[in-house]
Amino acid sequence: MKAIDKIEAFEPCLTAIEWLKSRTIEQLVDECRRGDWMLWLAVHLRMDYKILMQAKVKCVKTASHLMVDKNAIASLETAEKFSLGTISRDEFQVHLGNYLHPTYNLQFTYVAADAAALFACYFDDYTYKITDLNVAAENAYNVAAYVADAFANTCDNYREGAKLQAKSRLDTANICREVFGQLMKDLLNAL
User: Which of 64, 138, 163, 179 has the most Cβ atoms closer than 10 angstroms to its Cβ?
Assistant: First the structure.
């Protein structure tokens, strides 16, 4: 079965629709070169939040050397502990409350890697409590998108930045495949 037949109801972007047109579910998961798309889809599939968080944390860690905000770094460390089960959900929320102020504007953080870390942590628990999955999916998408932007922003040369961004997108897609590739196939086939 074509992947687009299963995913169309989630209203993916036009670029994704074009890419998906002739691909099967197996090809979607095995060939996707965009971690941001895979994270977006994982939310729409209502993937287990700890598995999703594991993928998000691993994606952000590819750019951890570019992070400068101590709260973002601490948030990422806390999210990793939670995703690995070394702290409880309550401990996670308490720790996160110490690092993130409700008025902290994630989208205007000056360092893209820091914003990625905050999106990875701040919105995870929120994801499954809202009725509009599009918002949650956009937030998951932003994790890998901001990581890619962080790498692109390390270059003054546009072409080199675009290459780094493409490599980051592929790296995060590979992480998603490693963490939840088979699960994504199973969830898609079950639709």
Answer: 179
